[in-house]
Specification:
This protein is an alpha/beta fold. It contains 10 helices and 6 strands, in the order βαααααβαβααβαββα. It has a 6-stranded parallel β-sheet with strand order 3-2-1-4-5-6, sandwiched between helices. Helix 2 packs antiparallel against helix 3. The radius of gyration is 18 Å and the shape is globular. The structure holds magnesium ion. Magnesium ion binds next to loops. The site of magnesium ion has 7 residues, from loops. Pfam families: Hydrolase (PF00702).
Length: 236
């Protein structure tokens, strides 16, 4: 049996697949006049709203449906568009439908194969409700690539990013020290910062060119070609 001594984990949403695509399709479906506004900007704003509202959901002040509607209403409002509740529900419904039709970024398989060929544990740490995240994992056919025992969904384990304990929990479960573990994710606040705090090596997959915080200098990559070169260098 292989003795694993290192691990590389990925975030799911917007790291392994393009989360903007199902979102853009859902908006198109509602035939909203978004004027000259950029869907990507509205999308980024809805992700931010989602993170803010997540706390309220965790405290029980907001239902999951409420959160999903409210993040849309807030982000559209920021761009001068008023959404009715029913429009927000309509977008969310189509968004979920199209999330069942997502596909992996082109070079994900190549990256995972590289890691596995080098006896490195390869896994996923993702925030969200278990069923919802598993549905996307299924749509992406990720179980063909990544063993189920290395897929960690926040609601299933009781810790969620940006709580660094989620990383410490995974370290214990896989029995690999934090300083031998890499985490690749697209969010500065949810991925880079807590991975650092837990002693992991974060890689910021910043292909949407968001602004990061200060005080930390993660490896920054904006495409999978560069990620693969980085991993090859790490491995050698
Ligand atoms: Mg993400």
């Amino acid at each position: 049996m292989d003795k694993h001594t290192r691990a590389v984990f990925f975030d799911l949403d917007d790291t392994l697949y393009d989360q903007l695509l199902p979102f853009a399709r859902a908006i198109k479906q509602e035939s909203l006049d978004i004027g000259t506004n950029n869907i990507e900007e509205i999308f980024k704003s809805s992700r931010k709203a989602s993170d803010l509202l997540w706390e309220e959901y965790k405290k029980g002040n907001l239902s999951l449906d409420g959160l999903r509607r409210e993040r849309l209403i807030r982000s559209f409002r920021e761009y001068g568009i008023t959404l009715t509740r029913s429009q927000a529900s309509g977008i969310q419904e189509s968004y979920e439908k199209y999330q069942g039709e997502i596909s992996l970024f082109p070079s994900v398989k190549k990256a995972v194969k590289l890691l596995k060929d080098n006896h490195i544990i390869c896994g996923i740490i993702t925030n969200g409700p278990v069923q919802h995240q598993k549905r996307k994992i299924e749509a992406l056919k990720l179980s063909e690539l990544i063993s189920d025992e290395y897929i960690f969904v926040s609601d299933g384990i009781g810790f969620a990013k940006p709580d660094k304990n989620i990383f410490s929990y995974v370290s214990k479960r896989i029995n690999i020290p934090a300083n031998q573990s890499v985490y690749i994710g697209d969010s500065w606040e949810n991925d880079v910062v807590p991975a650092y705090e837990a002693g992991w090596t974060p890689v910021w997959y910043n292909y949407r060119h968001r602004k990061g915080g200060t005080g930390k200098e993660p490896e920054i990559i904006d495409d999978y070609g560069r990620l693969i070169s980085y991993l090859k260098e790490k491995i050698s």
